[in-house]
Amino acid sequence: MEVGFLGLGIMGKAMAANLLRHGFRVTVWNRTLSKCDELVAMGAAVGDTPASVVAKCKYTIAMLSDPSAALSVKRRREPFCSYSSVAGCRCCR
């Protein structure tokens, strides 16, 4: 199973690393690309955009620092999901 992770601060990095240690395939994305390096060394892939991570992975976890960070990621030009894949999704409205 492929799991996506958006946001690699203290919690996000630790959670993604734990998934890798337990045999999950993980694709990560972070606004500061260098924060992905340690996880790539552990076997993670890096997505070009948040939307590419969501499209690639069955499950995606967003562990962003605060509401403004979440909104800045949500406001990127590419959509994260569609109503066909997520019932009641608010991000595509």
Automatic annotation (TrEMBL):
Domain 6-phosphogluconate dehydrogenase NADP-binding span(s) in chain numbering: 2-76
InterPro entries listed in its UniProt record: 3-OH-isobutyrate_DH-rel_CS, 6PGDH_NADP-bd, HIBADH-related_NP60_sf, NAD(P)-bd_dom_sf
Gene Ontology CC: cytosol
Domain of life: Eukaryota
Pfam families: NAD_binding_2 (PF03446)
Gene Ontology MF terms in the entry: NADP binding; oxidoreductase activity
PANTHER family the UniProt entry points to: GLYOXYLATE_SUCCINIC SEMIALDEHYDE REDUCTASE 1, OXIDOREDUCTASE GLYR1-RELATED
Name of this chain's protein: 6-phosphogluconate dehydrogenase NADP-binding domain-containing protein
